[in-house]
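Exercise 7.
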Amino acid sequence: MSLEPIDPETALELYLADKQNDLAEASLEAHRYRLQHVVRWCDEKGIENLNTLTGRQLHEYRLWRRNEGDLGKVTEKTQMDTVRVFIRWLESIDGVEQDLSEKVLSPSITPTENSRDVMLDTDRASEVLAQLEKFEYATVQHVGIAIMWHTMMRVGGAHALDVEDYDSDEQFLEVHHRPETGTPIKNKGDGERLVAISDSLCDLLDDWLASQRPDVTDDYGRRPLLASRHGRTQKSTLRDYVYRWTRPCALGNECPHDRDPDECEAMAYDRASKCPSSVSPHAIRRGSITHSLNSNMPDKVVSDRANVTQRVIEQHYDQRTEREKMEQRRDYLDDL
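Solution. The predicted structure, written as tokens, is:
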């Protein structure tokens, strides 16, 4: 086989262009982020042609990235698995030696190690929503966080909602994958679904639409449900809202980290994620899924509502203890 010379930066751009139709926007950006480190490492090592790349060098990269990035085991595996996919793609265009991808090593991890258990529990979620209802009723912050908690929706799903996706009479939200107008969702078409919502969430949405939502459209002429006066509220802004309102001090509680509010960096408007107690939107999703399971909602219903497989729920989201699961199963004994 005759290899065709290719430099690392060109290889990355061609790879991303090839994957553009296969990966969601967020996944594509994640691949770009992980593989930019490969380009940077090649530059440091003076590797200008990937034809010369060897298994030993890939192992050296793994050690370099682990130490340079202070990576945990799960993160290291994620990054090296992406490198393996990249190298396998390079094999397909005669950019590296065949079967080089088989020499890309990544750590083996157990299901327990691969599961992140940070979540917003039911009591704390109730406290957050109560605080928002009292001081920020029917603002975009209140509405965004309420949607994510009550529907188990990913932040990308909430961001993608339009006013027309809400049916007040039938009480549901309609989630759509619209990449051509700026709002792709995870799982693409498979992520599209109708999500039933409660009376209380409908009341909140009705009040938001009636009195608070700015009368704006986005860059594509659509009317975003979660809007600011500038248009569709960005996903990064929705994340900031979650970090901000899950800080203990935002709820009127004492700081559990003995920080001085006048000196704490997490008090800055865009630095709330620096609070050790604040959580991300994914922690809301995990907490909401666990809350639904604890409330005896059947696994299949949770799976369909949250757009996640039952296997993934069990491995990554279900935070019930074994005793809690046993007691819930006990409820079905009378039916035997």
